[in-house]
Every structure is written in structure tokens, then in C-alpha cells.
Amino acid sequence: MLRRRQLITVFVAFMLILSWRNTEYVKAVNQDPTNDGFKVPILMYHSIDEFKGNGYKELFITPENFEEQMTYLKVEGFTPITFDDITNLENIKKPILITLDDGYKNNMNAFHILKTLNDSTFQAKATIFMVGRKIDTKSGLSRSQLREMSDSGIISIQSHTETHPDLRETLYYRTELRDIKTKLEEITGREVTALAYPAGQYNDKVIEETKKIYQYAVTTKPGIANISESLYEMKRVRINNSTTLLEFKNLVNP
């Protein structure tokens, strides 16, 4: 009987030590933004509108579905952030980045929905990656709309290059990366620090050129972004027309 009690005592002591070590490890991971612990979902959208037969249907999210998805994030306690907040992730509860590519005029639907949901319990934020040549076109956002959204504090305007080329083949890095940054900063009066690679196409040369101008870059590779791996190859979670609310929940809660 004595030996049995001794064995139980040793086992309990071992488990307590193991538990303490695991707790300290998790604590260290959660507190150190340079460690492997800071992962954040980056949602990828394009058009926020009803599909009317033109274009690729999967890129269209109805305003109703977008509002349902954003309401879910609000109810579940997610904190929308922009790239300006990445250095402060350790102090943010359930951070999530909401991004929209290309800068379609229908992105105003997303802005109005987020503006409606914005309150003291849910500070709505999203990022639009704007293609320079789409500004002031029939399908693209206007300068005044970009300025309005940026001034609201809800939408961050970032770069999607000037002409949306394959950056692996372009000879015009200054135009595609630097000049568009200057253009957007002149429109909004705010710093542009992030780039979305057009069609997710990049290589080592593209990363090298991007690092000269931007602090962050996102890809179209599926998955949750790990901030500690590479700030220039950040994965995203693609949201499609066919994405159900249940699928959306699973995507943001991997």
C-alpha cells in the first residue's frame, strides 16, 4: 500500500511540473510577437454585390451574406484590425483582417455595412487593396469615395499595384509599386504600408522589390497568416459566393 501511495505521489508531482512547463510555454508564445504564436485570419473578398451575370460568380458576395458574416464576427468577439495594428497583436483579442481586392465601386456596400455595425463593442475596420488604374472608372472607386472611407477610420486603403500585372514579369517596378503608393497617399493623406500581389503571383525578385517600399504583403495562398513566418508571404482565407455561414465559421475558427 505504501509503495502504491508513493507512486501516486510521484506521478502527481510529475504532472504538476509538466503542467507548469506547458503553461509557461503557452504564456511565452502568446506574449512574444516574434515567436510562433501570432496567427491571424486575413479574409479575402472582391465584389460585395449581387451577381448579375457578368464576371466570375464566386467573386461576388451578396451584401446580405457579407452583413451576416460581419455580424457573426461582432457577436463572437472578433476584433477587426488593419495592417497598422499588426505590431500590437499581443494586446488584441481575436484579431482578424478583412481585405477586399481591386477596389470595385461596389465595395461601398461593404463600407456602409461596416459603418452600420460600428459601435463601442465592435470597432469595424477593413482594408481595400486598390488598383491604381481603376480609380475614377465606371467599375472602380472614385478619389472622393476613397477619401471618404479613409477619413471614416473604418477603411484602410492599401496597394494592389497600378495596373494589376504579373509582377514576376514586369519591368516597371517603380510604377507598379512606388508610384501607386505615392498616388494613394496623396488621395487619403495616410501611409500605405501593405501590398496585395496581383493574382497572388510573386517570386523572390518580387519580394525583394516589395521590401524596398512596403512593410507587408499578402498572397492568395489559403490558410491562416503566421506573422512570425514572413510579413511578405501572408496567407489569406478566400470567401466565395458559395461560402455558407457554417463554412465561414469554420474558416475563421480553424
From TrEMBL:
Keywords: Signal. One of its GO terms (molecular function) is hydrolase activity, acting on carbon-nitrogen (but not peptide) bonds. It holds the Pfam family Polysacc_deac_1. GO terms for cellular component: extracellular region. It comes from the Bacteria. It is found in: Secreted. GO terms for biological process: carbohydrate metabolic process. Residues 94-254 form the NodB homology domain. This is Polysaccharide deacetylase family protein. The lineage of its organism: Bacteria, Bacillati, Bacillota, Bacilli, Bacillales.
